[in-house]
Design brief:
Family: Belongs to the thiamine-phosphate synthase family.
Function: Condenses 4-methyl-5-(beta-hydroxyethyl)thiazole monophosphate (THZ-P) and 2-methyl-4-amino-5-hydroxymethyl pyrimidine pyrophosphate (HMP-PP) to form thiamine monophosphate (TMP).
Mean pLDDT: 97
Bound molecules: the ligand Cc1ncc(COP(=O)(O)OP(=O)(O)O)c(N)n1, the ligand Cc1nc(C(=O)O)sc1CCOP(=O)(O)O, magnesium ion
Pfam families: TMP-TENI
Number of helices: 10
Low-confidence stretches: none
Structural class: alpha/beta
Order of helices and strands: HEHEHEHEHEHEHEHEHH
Distance between the termini: 23 Å
Pathway: Cofactor biosynthesis; thiamine diphosphate biosynthesis; thiamine phosphate from 4-amino-2-methyl-5-diphosphomethylpyrimidine and 4-methyl-5-(2-phosphoethyl)-thiazole: step 1/1
Number of strands: 8
CATH superfamily: Aldolase class I
Shape: globular
Strand order of the largest sheet: 1-2-3-4-5-6-7-8
CATH topology: TIM Barrel
Protein name: Thiamine-phosphate synthase
Length: about 220
């Protein structure tokens, strides 16, 4: 949400339980309505993640979609997250930048963004999760995939044992389980010790995104 301080964003991220990654829905042309529905169902953080069939969106289209999401976040008091690109996060005044293991290094992203943007990291092993829980400049991390997922083809799934290991290790940093999570599998994710989740298809693929988000959010304390 525009205008929040870094401290306010970090507090909201700590309180966040349901994080949604969505594509720009250019084929349906319903991004604003979809985002309003998902956010009204209780999504706390929304990320534009559009890898497209022909590769990631060009910056101009990405920024146009992010502006739509920024307005929806402002309407619902949610956090706006940008995937991969620090320059784009700066341009749209995002709250969050999410970086994977092969993305721009965190110190360089911090050089672009300063301290008032929250930075998250993807992790896929205990060693990476341990590193992300200590690395300077990282505010939160995600761990997974919990199950193999067509949303991230080719990525091996460490599965719930990794979620369990991260939960047992304990960390002061907020962390989210990701990958293959839906309403049916959520109890297993919670049982493994996660309290926050990231989803894509469970909401983007739902006939009623508000109801799908509400059903997930209602089971996340
Ligand atoms: C919230 C969140 N968690 C994980 C990812 C995955 O990031 P990454 O490994 O860099 O893969 P891509 O999404 O860039 O394909 C994410 N984007 N968001
Ligand atoms: C974008 C992404 N990152 C992952 C990781 O493990 O870092 S798994 C994933 C895709 C999650 O999509 P769905 O909820 O549709 O399975
Ligand atoms: Mg990435």
């Amino acid at each position: 949400m525009p205008g929040l301080t870094g401290e306010q964003i970090r507090k909201r991220l700590d309180d966040a339980r349901l994080y949604l990654c969505t594509d720009a829905r250019e084929d349906r042309g319903d991004l604003a309505g979809f985002a309003d529905a998902a956010l009204s169902g209780g999504v706390d953080v929304i990320q534009l993640r559009d890898k497209g069939a022909d590769g990631p969106l060009e910056a101009k289209r990405e920024i146009a979609a992010l502006e739509v999401l920024a307005e929806a976040c402002a309407r619902h008091g949610a956090l706006l997250s940008v995937n991969d690109r620090a320059d784009v996060a700066l341009a749209v005044d995002a709250d969050v930048l999410h970086l994977g293991q092969d993305d721009i290094p965190v110190p360089l992203a911090r050089r672009v963004l300063g301290d008032d943007v929250v930075i998250g990291r993807s992790t896929h092993s205990e060693a990476q999760a341990r590193a992300a829980s200590r690395e300077d400049g990282v505010d939160y991390f995600c761990t997974g995939p919990c199950w193999p997922t067509p949303t991230k083809p080719g990525r091996d799934a460490p599965g719930l044992p990794l979620v369990r290991a991260v939960a047992e290790a304990g960390t002061a940093r907020p962390w989210f389980a990701i990958g293959g999570i839906d309403g049916e599998r959520l109890p297993q994710v919670l049982e493994a010790g996660a309290t926050r989740i990231v989803v894509v298809r469970a909401i983007t693929g739902a006939e009623d995104p508000a109801a799908a988000a509400r059903a997930l959010r209602g089971r996340l304390a």
